[in-house]
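Database export, one record per block. Field names are fixed; values are copied verbatim from the stored entry.
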Amino acid sequence: MRSRSGGEKRIRGRRVALWALAMAAGLSAGLGALRADESHERRGPLLPRFAAPLLGGGTGGSDQLIGRRALVWVFSPADPDGERVAAIVRRLAPDARAANIALLGVAVGVDSTQAQRAVEERGIDFPVVLDTRGTVAGKLRAPPRRSSLYSIDAQGFVLGGFRGLQVDRPEYDEAYEAEVRRLLHLTRHGAALRPELGLRPAAPEFRVRGLDGGLLESCDLEGKVGVLMFFSPTCPHCHEALQFFEALLGELDTDELVFAPVSVSDRIYVIEQMVNDLRLEVPLYTDPGGNAARDFTHRFSVPDTIVIDRDGRVLARHQGVNPRIKALLSVQIRAALGVENPIRLSRRGYSGQEFCQACHPGQHSSWELTRHAFAFETLVEHNVDRDPECLPCHTVGWEQPGGYSLENQSEHLRGVQCETCHGRGGPHQSPDFLAETDLESVCLTCHTPEHSLRFVFAERLPLVSHAANSRFAELSLEERIELIERRDKRQRKLFETADYVGSDACASCHPAEHQRWGASAHAGAFETLARQDAQGDPDCQECHTTGFGQPTGWQPGASGLQAVGCESCHGPGATHVAEEGRRPGSILRLTEKCDSCVILQICGSCHDDANDPGFEFELDAKLDLIRHGFRDREAPAP
């Protein structure tokens, strides 16, 4: 998966460093296949410690990146490829910020005036340190007068990166960017021609030339199942894939399947030598001018296999080859053809949602529109994707044989998937799973009081129900993205129904907590509206009062609830303070709750992107400003 940090490969007279999973997408024919064999997550060397003056004053360096994923850009104004790399960085920066990724530039070999000019010319708006003597660049092994990009995980390990670009191949830039996005879990919808969020994009029209001079065109696939595979004749992984498909064609023995292996090299003699060596009988094709590769958004990683259904839509796409991909391709192609399709689930572990998708496309499409599908990304954004307290509920088969673990960080087992709810292999391998444990009890293993705020099974089931989500089948990609983002806001009732009584009612039993609250910004929240002449604006009142819009909550002209009071966070307190009320459990005792899972839902209802961007990633630090109560010990009896 990765070579040593100093490993290099000569490409067209230019030395380009490749390490970790780095920028392998297309710079070497074989490296693309290695990406697909990710049964474990591999990391490169630790980012060396460094510090340097910040452009504009102060000091910056590696210490500012601790505990966060990061993108470090080392650049020199003298770099001939500098603007191309800067363009990649500019495209990455907005998405990186939104995903809690730290950005740091390192300006090498220039003074502050030159660095400032370079930053302004290239439109960079994140911190940049001055490395006038090249000390930091030396620690990072960045080549002189070249731009380098480093992807760092939250533990400080270098996941990958690149040193320099190919001057004569600007079309590689998108491949570099795509690999950085993959390493940092930066989703970019619609960037590649592949199924996404339950939608199959239309395959573009194409024309490729056979070794005998004949043409194969997209119209030749009409009504049939097509498989295009971009390959390199010198790539051993491509050889393996070609031999696999030749065997599969023999098994299926049908004219309804068209297999078109397209060489990314036009050197006919090299292709013919490969045919002789492998004794291949399948027809092979070339792509003069690279039009098919461009239209299919081929990113140089080979083998790159695209399955096209009978309606001319992209059914599946896989980079690389390994036993799992071979099994997936076999299942997906057979399902598209409508022929007998033996179950090929893992015998010793969990298979992952892609195998379920082949035979259950409708259910899979509805799952892709749920937050379950993005559960692992939530951990990544909060830098807890290696936390054993969080992983059991955000991965499949945690620490079970063949399941996800810190030793087996399989990408295909990330998220809350089919096998989480239906058991390993679903009814095929676990027929009694849901009979012995009903669906509600399965949900409650993760949706505990500590991690789920006011979880009511009947209320939440429609959000993940295949039948309920089938109504979204006609949504466009943009509408589906909007739906997922809207669902992430968790806009629902947070507290049990009760009357609001005001924070003064809490003071007699909780004097220390009430005193600390009284000195906080929450207690003066309504006064901030008066200073801005916004006290009459309902949109502002909602987050600067207690119980806004509730029957017994704050009303215009009232004073008792004119602040962000105790009940804004703990819920209405009438039952709790009543003489014979049900005190335990009648309000939320937040010291028992998970900050990220529960408290963020409460705080985030007001501290959203519009009013406090980035709050969710600063939650711990901001909670420390108001934290009170009896953490890690029992509260005294009321």
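Remark 1: Confidence is low (pLDDT under 50) at residues 1-41, 631-638.
Remark 2: The chain has four domains: 8-183, 207-337, 353-488, 503-626.
End of record.
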